[in-house]
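hey so i finally got around to running the thing on that chain from the lab meeting. sorry it took forever, my laptop kept dying and i had to restart like 3 times. anyway pasting the input first so we r on the same page abt which one it is
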Amino acid sequence: MTTGPAVNLHATAVVLGTSGFLFVGPSGAGKTAAALSCMATAQAIGLFSALVSDDQVFISTENGRVIARRPASITGLAEVRGAGIVTVETIAVAVMDFAILPVKSPFEPRLPPENERFDLPSGDFLPLLRLPLIEGMNSFDNLRRLLPLNARF
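ok and heres what got predicted. didnt touch it at all, straight out
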C-alpha cells in the first residue's frame, strides 16, 4: 500500500551492506562526497554498496517503509564537485533506513538534539544522523560509530 505519490528530493541515496542511507542537506553540503566515500570504504572491506541516485531521488512510502528510486535520466551518474560527472554502480530502488546530514566544522550545535529526524513531505520521517566531515577521518568509519548498535555493519 502506497501512502502517497513519489516526491523528488534534492538528496543522494545509497545502500551500504543491507541498510539504505539518504544523504540530505543544502547544495554544497558534501552529500555526494560523503556518500561516495562511504561506498568506496564499504566495497574495500567487502560490504555491498551501490548508489540509488545522486542529486535527485524519488521518495515514497510503501507499507510503512521509505522507498528511494532513481530518475531514469541520471541512472548510474554522480557529480564529483569540481571534477565532473562519474559513473557509479547503481540499483534502481531501495528501502531507506536513515537520513544522513553531512556537517562541516565548526560544528553548531556541538551535540545534535536527541532523536533527531528528517521529515519527509509525506509526513513520514527517517532517523537523522549528523555525519561530521573531518579532514583525515574516514566518513564510513564515522558513520559506523554513529549508527545504533542494532544497525551497525
